[in-house]
Structures are given as C-alpha cells and as structure tokens.
Amino acid sequence: MLSGRRAVWMPAALLLRMRTEEKTSSWPGQARHAATGGILSPPQSPDIELRLPTRHHLPTMTIPNLITIARLIMVPIVIVMIMQQRWAAAFILFVVAGVSDGVDGFIARHFDMKSEFGAYIDPIADKALLVSIYVALAVVGAIPSWLAIVVVSRDAMIVAAVLLSWVMSRPVEIKPILLSKLNTAAQIGFAAFALAANAYGVELAGFEDIAMLAVATLTVASAGAYLGGWLRHMAA
User: Fold this and answer.
1) Does 160 reside within a domain?
2) Within a domain: 167
3) Which GO BP annotation is one of this protein's (predicted)?
4) For 177-194, how does the pLDDT look when each residue is reduced to its tens digit (9 = 90+)?
C-alpha cells in the first residue's frame, strides 16, 4: 500500500514542481529541463522562431511558368528525335518551343504575370534546349563538333564564373547584353537551319559555312564580354 501511495504522490509532486518553475523561468522549456534532471536538451533562445513552409514561399505557377516548364520537358523529346534522325519531328518541336518562348514572355509582360521563379526557369529552359540540340547535332554528325564545343564552353564558363563569385561571397548579376542577344538569335537561327536542312533538304550554297562562322564569332565575343564584366566585378 505504501509503494502504491508513493507511485501516485511522486508524479503529482513532480508536476507541481514543473508548474512552479515554469511560472518563474524566463526561458521556454527551462522548467521541464530542470525537472527532468537535465535529460532534455538545453533551452534555445526565445529569439529563435521555427517556421513551417507556407504557400507564400512556394513558386507561383502562373501560365507563363507552366509554358516554360512544358518547354523544358520538350528538351529530351527533341534530343531523342535528333538521335533517331526523325528530323521533321525534331524541327517541328523546336519551332513549337521557340514560339512558346515568345508566348510566355508576352503573357508575363502584358498580363502582369512576372515572377521570380519565371525569371530563373525561363533562361534555364532556353539554354537547356539550345545546348542540348547543338550537342545532339554534333553527335549525329549534322554539325562540326568544334562548333558544339564552342557553344557549350561559353555557357559552362558563365555558370562557373557565377558559382565562383557566389562561393567567394561576391555574387554577380548576369544581365543580358546586346551582344548576348545577337548570339542567342544566331544560335537559334542556325539550329533551325540545321534541322530544316536535314528534314526538308534545304540547301543554300555557302550559307552554312558563313552561318557557322557567325555563330562561333558571336559566341566567343559574348563570352569575352561577360568575362570582362566578371573580372571587373571581382576586382572592385
């Protein structure tokens, strides 16, 4: 009987002690920590606040963002079409992707649907499509491999520079410049020409060599412009 009474009395005393210390303690959880003999971890500062993810912090799935994601999904499909040399399908998908790029930009600007997520995902989708197409075209022998290496190296250099500046706590913002826009237009135009030439037998005497030279020149020039800006930023 005595052991039974102690079994009831001890938890009650422990509960009373915890309540008393909670009223006098200025730290949340300090009373429970003391009452249990230090079993619990030390209390945290009251300034620390744990927040669960909310809908406000999630990317906004606007119509332009959905179109951009759809364009990103097209990338592996286009690559498969090129590797299987189904040129007409690859060309049509490339045109659809290009049109979608203009459509999502128009909707975002004119219907107030711009978002931070869209600002990041849109150039990623564009570069993923272009770089993948140049690599695939080089693999199947539709374009010289050196041209694909130039295109890929330029984008890899820019990504590496951005990551290095971030690691060194000197983040740099890459803004599109006129030379970069001309380079992108040239790359898109030549990729479309290469796909159409294989799909529909389009041949323009001497145009291919001139177009390749223009793409390579603009690619190297835009890479140099970005590199110069990055070096000035890091030296400032």
Assistant:
1) yes
2) yes
3) glycerophospholipid biosynthetic process
4) 999 999 999 999 999 999
